[in-house]
Protein: Mitochondrial ATPase complex subunit ATP10
Organism: Spathaspora passalidarum
Amino acid sequence: MNRQAIRTIKTKPFSAVTSTVASATQAAQTKSIPITKPFGLDKPVLLNHTIPENQYNLSSIWHNITSVEGRARRQKQLDYDIKHSALFDAKSFNNVQGKIFTPPPAYFKSQYSKYFPDFIAQTLGGKNLSLYDVLEKKVSIVNLFSTVTGQQCVNSYYKVEGKDLYAKDYSSFQETYPNCQIIDINVPQSWLKGFLLNLSINNLKKMIPQSRYDRYFILPDQIFQYEVRDSLLCSNSCSGYIYVLDSKGRVRWATSGYSTEEDLKLMWKVVKGLNNEKF
């Protein structure tokens, strides 16, 4: 990043302005994207090497508001938000009933699969951990969300045969799929939402078993860059996403939105198959 003591204000060329306006007025998504081949990153990428002890305390927020880096991030966020406004995301979400993309009919073979990014972030247990370190030679069901509706989407995939495998009946999940684990990645959309989330940590802890506290990441949105979101097809913040990863961080299967009966059966068939896979 080019750091300067004084940030000059430059006007955009007319062509750039018209391009931005066109992006802002683009039509909302009307059809789900069918997943027919592996997607993700071409190789493992570590998005950040270190993070401050607390991203959302008052000191960090003040730095975000006043620093050159903070202003640059906000400008990039503004450019991105113009293309992905709350109205655009909400309309797209409603048009496809949350299904930003539909899942593949089977999981991808490991040799053809692409990668989910690695990162270092704070967990619900208060530790700064790397996602890839947590993968631990297990199959990981990774829930990614930024909003309440997104979390509701992913939670709908854990209502199986009258059980709640996400929370209340997590022990049943562990018994049935001993080589698997559940990982949550909560990406607050702004420093303000991150600050509010930080205030509700105790409530979050009541939602999941204590054994999963260090499997629940709070990932600042400035780390989860737009290019990465686009490659993972998770730019719409209203929806929730599930990525089934192997121990090397490869995306073997994925889905989005609320579960359907067919999707629910398919996901757990995939999890069962990967649970028995040797890798």
In short: The radius of gyration is 19 Å.
